Amino acid sequence: MEKAATSVRTVRVPNRAGLHARPAGEFVKVAGRFRSEIHLAKDGLEVNGKSILGVMMLAAEQGAELTIRCEGIDADDAADALVALVERGFGDG
Amino acid sequence: MGRIHDGLPISEGIAFGKVRIVRWGVPDVPHRATDPAEVEGEVEAFHRARESAKTRLHEICADTETRLGPMEARIFEPQILMLDDPDLVDGTVRYIRENRLSAARAFEWRILETQALWIRTSNAMVLDRLNDLDDLLVRVLQYLLDLPEAGDLMGDGEPAIVVARNLTPSLTVQMDPSRVLGVATELGTRTSHWAILARSMGIPAVAGLPGLANHAIEGSQAIVDGRIGRIILEPDARDREVYEGRRIRIRAWESELAEIALLDPVTLDGSPVSLRANLDLPNEAGRAVTHGAEGIGLFRTEFLVVGRNSMPEEEEQYQAYRHVVEAFPNRAVFIRTFDLGGDKFPMFLHMPAEENPFLGWRAIRVCLDRLDLFRPQLRAILRATAHGDIRILLPLVNDVDEILRVRELLAEEEDSLKRDGIPFFSGYKLGILVETPAAALDAAELARHCDFFSIGTNDLVQYTLAVDRTNARLANLYNPFHPAVVRQLHQIARVGRAAGIEVSVCGEMAANPLGAFLLLGLDIHALSVAWPSLPEVKKVIRSFRIEDARTAARKALAASSSRDVTACLAEGLGTSVDLSAFSGRWSLNLPEP
Questions:
Q1: Do A59 and B132 make contact, defined as CB atoms within 8 angstroms?
Q2: Identity of the residue in A52, A87, A93 whose CB atom sits nearest the CB atom of B309
Q3: Is A33 near chain B, with CB under 8 Å?
Q4: Model-level pTM?
Q5: In chain B, which residues touch A (CB < 8 A)?
Q6: Does A43 touch chain B (CB under 8 A)?
Q7: What is the pLDDT of residue B519?
Q8: Would the N or C end of chain A have less CB density within 10 A of its end CB?
């Protein structure tokens, strides 16, 4: 059996509009490409990182600190991809 | 007088018509327990309804993209993703299996639970999106309960003003603007998805009118004024007359604007003006072209840094600059170097908290301290000079030394490009944004080292009057027509003429009809405005004689107060242009209708 790993990373929301509906969609689309379980937390509230309803509920604004916790065989790759997505400002202009 | 209700302005425009009260809502879900034998059938039914809803949303999305554009189409994307949301789907299936609920009931519960969680966040952004969950709930229930799609709000009725408690994105995008004359709702905000769609469709709309559906009478007359956020129920003859006149003036004005993009920006007596566009993002260049821009008078480059966690690469910058320059062959493109600080903080710079950020470490001051940020930008701009006519514009310059230092840096980067064999055009121009009283008073010295001046009126007004323009309490003190501002503009223009360099204006003042009139009267012949304002400014320019502008400017220079300045200009321009047709954002000191 492949070995499960955990990868925990924190990142700040850089884009002005924050984690609104469209970026939340981008986040779950990327999260959905990985087999790992993905959890996203802000201020102690943790949601399923593959659920757009959960991610939208966090309402993370510019500067908010997010913790991304990935558990599974591709945890590191998932964390890398999600951190990169947030750092790019979700592709927001 | 009819009964006036004031709410939130959602979408501009004036509409007259009969009230049509639309009551839509989440359909009633019959309560029934399912038989154990039926459970898997309900699960199947749920997945089928989900797939049907997805297919339909993809259709709506594609249709919206064709009719309104990609931005508007994206409004429906979250709903499509929600239909595959594991929490929503698995939760619903679990309720069907464990609680023996019908698919409709289970889905409704799951959505209500989500809404309850969202409401608890009390976050405006999240509350705005509750409406999208309603939209989704109604759609899925329609398939599960076999109901007709709640699409056409008007049915067979005649064109009318729709009055509703609230709307959804789906209902709005399916409205036919020739039959839905206007919209007035009890709930909703400017940032609701349906509000964005109403604006894009050009349907006048007002929201935030509590109790409206009870006050309004089906079939009675009403006027919606989406610009100020008002509905007048049962207007009398006088109300109608006032609004009719206003609507006709606005319509005539707008239809002329549409035709004007192709005409030259010259005054009535043929005096030419360089009319350029301000640009925030490279991909707006195309729209600036179609709106008739003759070049870019201000290309803001902060999009490359704000909202990023790392410094922008030279190559990315070069591509962005090149893209814009190539959209304007043989035309000038003014690229402003990073104007950071003030209210724009990129994360990677670690800007210290300052007592007075607008008097602090910002603009050219940041760039000259952070060469690791500035050098790649200069190098990227130099590389872009190989593709067109580039003018490098330095923000917030007060001192000759600042220009000299940038010239040194440019010389070093030019040498480095030569060594690397990378092409550039050495005939580019370098100039400054004149936006402080210091620069205005010292313009003659600065002009000796500049190839052009561009006046940034927004900051010049703020610094001259010591009024923070973002402070709502001081809104009436922030006045671009203060005599102190007018005299500085005159002084900068005179110095520029004497030095033989171009003087342009790229602040909001250039887009204000009275402002454009004044600036041309002061012999400033190059204006740059946000691209959506180009047709309106051009229309103003084409409607007066340069001599009339000069006469009004002379009077304005002798005026003793802001009010007098505005009066001189309104009097001078009012003989050529119907000033009451302008949108309300300009304080033109005109009587309300």
A1: no
A2: A87
A3: no
A4: 0.62
A5: 74, 77-78, 81-82, 85-88, 114, 117-118, 121, 123, 125-126, 129, 132, 281, 283, 303, 306-310, 347
A6: no
A7: 98
A8: N
Cβ B157 vs Cβ B182: under 8 Å: no
- In this complex, do A16 and B306 lie within 8 Å of one another by their Cβ atoms? yes
- Strand B429-434 and strand B452-455: the pairing is parallel
Continuous H helices in B202-279:
212-215, 237-260
Q: Is the dihedral of CA B237, B242, B244, B245 positive or negative?
A: positive
Cβ neighbours around B234 below 10 Å, total: 15
Task: State the pLDDT at residue B127.
Answer: 87
CB-based contact A93 B281, cutoff 8 Å: yes
B182 phi/psi in degrees, rounded to 5: -165, 170
Q: Cα(B60)–Cα(B77) distance, rounded to whole angstroms?
A: 10
Interval B70-117: pLDDT, tens: 888 889 999 999 999 999 999 999 999 999 999 999 999 999 999 999
Tokens 């769609």 label which residue? B197
Average pLDDT of chain A, as a whole number? 90
CA A42/CA A32 separation, integer angstroms: 20
Q: Which of B114, B129, B310 is closest, CB to CB, to A87?
A: B310
Please, are residues B191 and B161 in contact by the beta-carbon 8 Å criterion? no
Say if CB B573 and CB B481 are below 8 A apart. no
Nearest beta carbon to residue A52 from set B78, B118, B281: B78
Closest partner residue to A52 (CB to CB) among B81, B123, B281 is: B81
The H or E element spanning position A10 is strand A5-12
Contact between chains at B88 and A51 (C-beta distance less than 8 A): yes
Chain segment B136-146, per-residue pLDDT in tens: 999 999 999 98
**Listed residue (B260, B258, B294) closest to B274, CA to CA:** B294
Least confident of B263-272, B301-310, B362-371, B543-552: B301-310
Burial B539-572 (b: 16+ CB within 10 A, else e): bbbbbbbbebbbebbebbbebeebeebbbbbbeb
Angle between helices B513-521 and B546-558 (to 10 degrees): 90
> To the nearest 10°, the Cα dihedral for B112, B118, B122, B123?
-140
The count of other CB atoms within 10 Å of the CB of residue B336 is 24
Q: Which two tokens stand for residue B592?
A: 């309300």
B87 → chain A, closest CA residue: A51
How deeply is B198 buried, as exposed, middle or buried, from its count of CB atoms within 10 A (0-12, 13-18, 19+)?
buried
Candidates A36, A40, A56, A87: best to mutate against B (most CBs of B within 10 A) is A56
Going by C-alpha positions, the residue among B370, B367, B299 that lies closest to residue B338 is: B367
**Which stretch of DSSP H or E encloses residue B137?**
helix B130-145
Pairing of strands B526-530, B274-279: parallel
Per the model's pLDDT, the better-predicted residue between B20 and B303 turns out to be B20
Q: Two tokens at B131?
A: 């409406």
Chain A residue whose CA is closest to B113: A53
Set B5, B506, B525, B568: catalytic member:
B506
Say yes or no for a CB contact (<8 Å) between B309 and A12: yes
B542 conformational bin, left if phi > 0, alpha if psi -120 to 50, beta if neither: alpha
- Closest CA–CA distance from residue B126 to any residue of chain A (Å): 6
> What's the half-sphere exposure (Cβ side, CA atoms, 13 Å) at B543?
22
B323 is an active site residue: no
Do B159 and B201 contact (CB within 8 A), yes or no?
no
Q: Are B530 and B561 in contact (CB under 8 A)?
A: no
